[in-house]
Design goal:
This protein is 38% helix and 19% strand. By secondary structure, it is of the alpha/beta class. The chain is built from eleven helices and twelve strands. Bound molecules: ligand PBG. Ligand PBG binds next to helix 6.
Length: 328
């Protein structure tokens, strides 16, 4: 598209269209909308519980009653899409709470969909919040077993769908999970339930604050045998291609900011809706610097969200959703 025949200065003066805010607004290429945002929620057992996550100012662990009040507030702000993370009362080796009919996410799904049927409720499918060892799969001989884990992820996904999840979002990074989940959903009358796959998910230090929020830090080792290495770009394209082949409806790049190149590469390579996860550490850094008055937090937030959309994301999962909605 590059036109090499642009006239040179002084005929060409790009500042002409930057002169007033009307001009700037008219020719802005990337405009954020409330429809772009998905807001993550951390749900715990109990009632009347609401505790701020110390490393994520403004974000809370909440019991279901408070999650319902939160949904009301979100809808008033114009946000109609949420992503649920469950923190169970008890954990075990095989993450039983993840696929329990009375698990925390299952209960939350039923109550949210009953009170707010029009809310788009996406459920994160993973085992790390539910396993005593904090890994995203079943452990044998100190290593995460891929194929054994697929069975549990399929059970978890089906259980979420049965309890009202509108979109299933597997974040575990096992090979073949999208196919396994698509199969179980199709066999059980959920052929219309979309899958949003965390396709290119990197083993990132930016997840630190989330692990406090979701109480999901691995108890030994790290996630590098299943999440991607941050130096890899071609492999990310391969991951995305495989997830599309296995039936993903929406693919995701995560984190967002250190991986904007991959958001663009994915957008250019595949004609499929693309999500980006503006993760916990990306949120906390801005909050911390703003608290110290080192940056203008609101302006940096809007700039960052715009950059993710400009890179090519169709939707952005972000803890900033509410604050940004107030400025749009
Ligand atoms: C679960 C999961 C994680 C995040 C989303 N789903 C953490 C991890 O993989 O350790 C991170 C989100 C964030 O940092 O905001 N596997």
């Amino acid at each position: 598209m590059t036109n090499l025949n642009y006239p040179n200065f002084p005929v060409s003066r790009l500042r002409r269209l930057r002169k007033t805010s009307v001009l700037r607004n008219m020719f802005r290429e990337t405009v954020l909308s409330k429809n772009d945002f998905i807001y993550p929620l951390f749900i715990v057992e109990g009632t009347k519980f609401k505790k701020e996550i110390s490393s994520m100012p403004g974000q809370f662990q909440m019991s279901i009653d408070n999650v319902l009040r939160e949904c009301e507030e979100l809808q008033k702000l114009g946000i109609f899409s949420i992503l649920l993370f469950g923190i169970p009362a008890a954990k075990d080796e095989i993450g039983s709470g993840a696929y329990d009919k009375n698990g925390i996410v299952q209960k939350a799904l039923r109550e949210i969909k009953k009170e707010f049927p029009e809310m788009l409720v996406i459920s994160d499918v993973c085992l790390c919040e539910y396993t005593s060892h904090g890994h995203c799969g079943v452990i044998e001989n100190d290593s995460v077993q891929n194929d054994e884990t697929l069975k549990l992820l399929a059970k978890e996904a089906l259980s979420h769908a049965e309890n009202g999840a509108d979109i299933i979002a597997p974040s575990d990074m096992m090979d073949g999970r999208v196919g396994a989940i698509r199969k179980v959903l199709d066999e059980n009358n959920f052929s219309e339930t979309p899958i949003m796959a965390y396709s290119a998910k990197f083993a990132s230090a930016f997840y630190g604050p989330f692990r406090e929020a979701a109480e999901s830090a691995p108890q030994f080792g790290d996630r590098k045998s299943y999440q991607m290495d941050s130096g890899n770009s071609d492999e990310a394209i391969k991951e995305i291609a495989l997830d599309i082949q296995e039936g993903a409806d929406i693919v995701m790049v995560k984190p967002a900011l250190s991986y904007l190149d991959l958001i663009r590469r994915a957008k250019d390579n595949f004609n499929i809706p693309l999500a980006a996860y503006n993760v916990s550490g990306e949120y906390s850094m801005i909050k911390a610097a703003a608290e110290k008055n080192w940056i203008d937090g609101e302006k940096v937030m809007m700039e960052v969200l715009t950059s993710i959309k400009r890179a090519g994301a169709d939707v952005i999962i972000t803890y900033f959703a509410k604050e940004a909605a107030k400025l749009i």
